[in-house]
Amino acid sequence: MSARRDEEQELLWDAVEELIQYDKLKAQAVLKAAIERLFIQLNMSTTLISDLHLSIQNEESIQAIRCLDNEIRKKTVEYISEPSYETILNYIEKISEMTENPQVIYKKIVASIWIEEKNQPHYIMERKPAYLHEIEENDENSTAGENKKKFYTTSEAANKLGLSDQTIRRMCERGKFKRVYRSEGGHWRIPEDNFVTTREQDNKANTILGHLDRKNQEADDVDEFNLS
Q: Taking every annotated instance into account, which residue ranges of this chain make up the domain Helix-turn-helix (predicted)?
């Protein structure tokens, strides 16, 4: 992973640790974004994270997951080795421990990653699916702008996940996203439900990260975090 992506991931974890003190719901949303981001960078896919309720008990539990996140990124600079997979399993176990039924959730996350990997399609749908035409043409309650918001462009997805536009296009070609299609101009469109966080949550997270970044530039240590 690039130094820039590592820096952005660390900023996400900084935001989680700061938000624990003020708003655990926001902390949970940013935590899910950090988890999703790591899985995407590992070229692993699971839609289960978005449905989990992660109970953040204390800073120690977050620190444990953050340390594993950091260790995984260091071990998987070029490829995923057997020791790396063991660390990834430990990472998933720690995530599961934040749910009401850790053993069941642990198995479900591992199984979902395995299923997504095994069931990748051998082709990509090039034409826009019929249901998309129906949404755009027949939904009288939606404006064109609202319909567009239901999908991400490759550049928007790249910015959201901290990856390059080229990487996102390759992921589309390899079937890493569900129900992707090409527009009439040949551009990829990615349904928003492929991602854990919504646009609104992303905007809030970006505001928080921007605040933290400015704080870090002003001083080495941030003693207070103002959400107002």
A: 151-195
